[in-house]
Design goal:
The chain is mainly alpha-helical. The protein has a domain of 27 residues. Helix 1 packs antiparallel against helix 2. The longest helix has 18 residues. The chain is flat, with a radius of gyration of 13 Å. The protein starts with 6 loop residues before the first helix and ends in a 6-residue tail after the last helix. The relative contact order is 0.12.
């Protein structure tokens, strides 16, 4: 049995739960998410760094 999870939806789910639990974390979660997505976009996700 293979389980394949994509990083985008998983990160969104975790961020949504954290925002519901602690609304003051919204700014930090959004900033961190955007930084990670930006870095993945620049360097690619194929592991050739």
């Amino acid at each position: 049995m293979n389980v394949h999870l994509a990083i985008g939806p998983l990160a969104s789910l975790i961020a949504g739960i954290l925002i519901l639990a602690v609304p003051r974390l919204l700014n930090y979660i959004v900033a961190l998410y955007l930084i990670i997505i930006g870095l993945l976009g620049l360097f690619g996700t194929n592991g050739h760094f």
